[in-house]
Amino acid sequence: MLGRMFTSSLDLSITGRPNDQGEYELRDGFSAEVFRAVLSFYTDGCLRCPRGTDVSELRAACDYFMVPFTLGTPCGSLLHEFSNDGARAQFEHFLEEVILPQLVTCAQRGERECQIVILADEDVVDWDEDHPPAMPDTEVLPLIVNSSSMCRFFKYVENRDVAKQVLKERRMKKIRIGIEGYPTHKEKVKRRAGGRSDVIYSYAQRPFLRVSWEKEENRSRHVDFQCVKSKSISDLTSLEAVAVERPVDLPPSLTPPLPDNQAAPQPPGAAEVLEEALERLQADQQQQQQPPAAD
């Protein structure tokens, strides 16, 4: 490789003199990214094609620097990287042309998240107005997009992973991309006893995309405090009512037995207790005010 690089008879070679930084510069023909990819092959034995680089340019560089680029070379990883780059560019096109307008429509309605179901161009949605299909999530109504190219794109798990990465870079939250059955049209109607009828729908496996642009969950921040009735006594006027509602129960050992023909006396109320205490207090005061008797 070094002989090829420093041979002056070849058109594609390195200049014999270094630049001011002590670096050798390649002549016109190979980009710096391609040359870096060739050098990485001698480091880890893996040839990676830079993003945006034509395969023909990389192969020409491999032929010049004597790097094996034949059918026997393991090229699965290389093709995988090509597919990831192509999937990223394709999804960015779908995002700008198809998905972003749907997200704007949901945001203008005051929604905080959006779910998009991608149907094929030939799919027709025909629901019975009286018997619509049961949807698993009724909080977020899905938007329908007819695009066979997007259906083929999201068929691969690797493309869905690339799409998730792009959406994360766009600051999207709660990203879900998958394939589920979506009801398209009525298949048959079953009549049951009592005049009730069940509609059976035909489901098609189609990709869906669900994202949110809010950081928090879609829940209300308002806290509802329950009004609990206080059991404390605010004033003395309600003492009698409390005493009647909650009478003091004596244990059976302290309760004297009553005759059969005599009913149990009712416990005195709070007013009666206070009145009896006041009478005793007044009697004691009168006895204290009376002069002592003479001998």
From TrEMBL:
It comes from the Eukaryota. One of its GO terms (biological process) is positive regulation of phosphorylation. GO terms for cellular component: cytoplasm. Residues 248-270 are annotated as: Disordered. Residues 249-259 have a biased composition (Pro residues). SUPFAM superfamilies: POZ domain. InterPro entries: BTBD10/KCTD20, BTBD10/KCTD20_BTB/POZ, SKP1/BTB/POZ_sf. It is found in: Cytoplasm. Keywords: Cytoplasm. Residues 1-71 form the BTBD10/KCTD20 BTB/POZ domain. This is BTB_3 domain-containing protein. It comes from Macrostomum lignano.
